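Milestone M4 deliverable, item 7.
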Amino acid sequence: MPKLCVNIDHVATVRQARRIKEPDPVFAALLAELAGAAGITCHLREDRRHIQDEDVVRLKAMVKTRLNLEMAVTEEMLKIAEDISPHMVMFVPENRQEVTTEGGLDIKRNLKRVKAATERMKAAGLKVSHFIDPEIVQIDAARECGANVIELHTGAYAEALTENDRLQELQRLEAGVLHASLNDQRINAGHGLNLRNVGPIAAIQGISELHIGHSIVSHSVLVGFERATREMLDAIIRGELLGARYTPAQVLTLFSP
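Output delivered:
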């Protein structure tokens, strides 16, 4: 079964709306762990719109599972990762004007810079993940850079408006997972996943972890953080169990609105 790694960025988004102490993203991370999360993800953005430097320090000290630090490939962020030493760093694209990450990192176009950053992080004893679109050229570029893990961007699947488009994006993800698996790459996936659409992704054989944040945080406003995390885990389990008997495309029909 794919493990669940919970992104707690948007707990900090609520806090930063008032610039006060609550809600505390570190406390949310601990509740997610109590509910069964296998890891915690946070994104220290250059504009510090949600997670702050102090949050990352406290998360490293308190998280008992694994801390995954998302970051842009910049000198500032590389230095922070070296100082804090999370379990894993994940390189993501970053645009100051975007509401959230809009797509995968173009490693092919930035191969030299990403490879150098990957080697630097690995030399510091850190595992490295690359957040990429499910494209063969990007998967191969991540392998060339020496990434320990790739995380396939599921945003196009999550945002598809028609059943046919969802099926096409699901098949694109399946093809990406298969290609990466044949190259012995470890594969995670995430972005835009929620209780309604996570099942078909969990049904894809070969995905190690699903990284999910916003939908858990928004659901937790109504039901609490532990319950929101547990309900997401239940949805992943259902998808994985269905995936043992049916294709992801068949599972998709069960989750279509």
